[in-house]
Amino acid sequence: MKKTGMLELFEEMFREELMEYHRQFAVRKKPNVRLERTHRDAVLPGYEKLGDAGADVRSVTETVIQPGRRALLDLGFKIEIEDGWEIQVRPRSGLALKKGITVLNSPGTIDSGYRGPCGVILQNSSNEPFPVRVGDRIAQFVLKSAPQANFIWTDSVSSSERGEGGFGSTGVV
Domain for residue 23, yes or no? Predict the structure, then answer.
């Protein structure tokens, strides 16, 4: 089939460049994250401001986390994430700075194949008990692309400027 229009000629001349542009900059649809409520007080995760990366999640557990202790707090739902994506569970910066509260295994990962109840492991690194009430914003969910890699054995890995330097090799401060 012969292409004679300017658009077709342009597409033919710049096909590779257009494909690369599309791969890098095309707007992708937002993946759906389906939630099944398991507790009457459960609240959908929510973004506080336009452009936020993290959606706040709220506890359905009422407890007090003692200094130096940790607790698993129920979010009141099960989750279904589309294949190729994960949810990272991250601390809220205000709780970390002002109250010494963090997500213990930060970032926690919820894989796309997981269908069980969702919870957050909070740790109190302060010297004061930390009360948690039902409905408190306790952590953030960040949706991330999670492609699976091909892990392969090789006789050697290539060299790099950094080499084998790790664990503070670029300086502490």
Answer: no
Residue 85 lies in a domain: yes
Domain with 98, as residue range(s), is: 33-145
Please tell me the predicted confidence (pLDDT) of residue 161. Answer: 84
Q: What's the pTM?
A: 0.77
- Asked if residue 127 belongs to a domain, the reply is yes
The verdict on residue 89 lying in a domain is: yes
pLDDT of residue 64: 98
Residue 84's CATH number = 2.70.40.10
Name the domain count of the chain: 1
User: Chunked in runs of 10, what are the mean pLDDT values of the chain (173 residues)?
Assistant: 66 73 64 96 96 96 98 98 96 96 95 96 98 98 95 93 78 67
Distance CA 39, CA 75 (A): 8
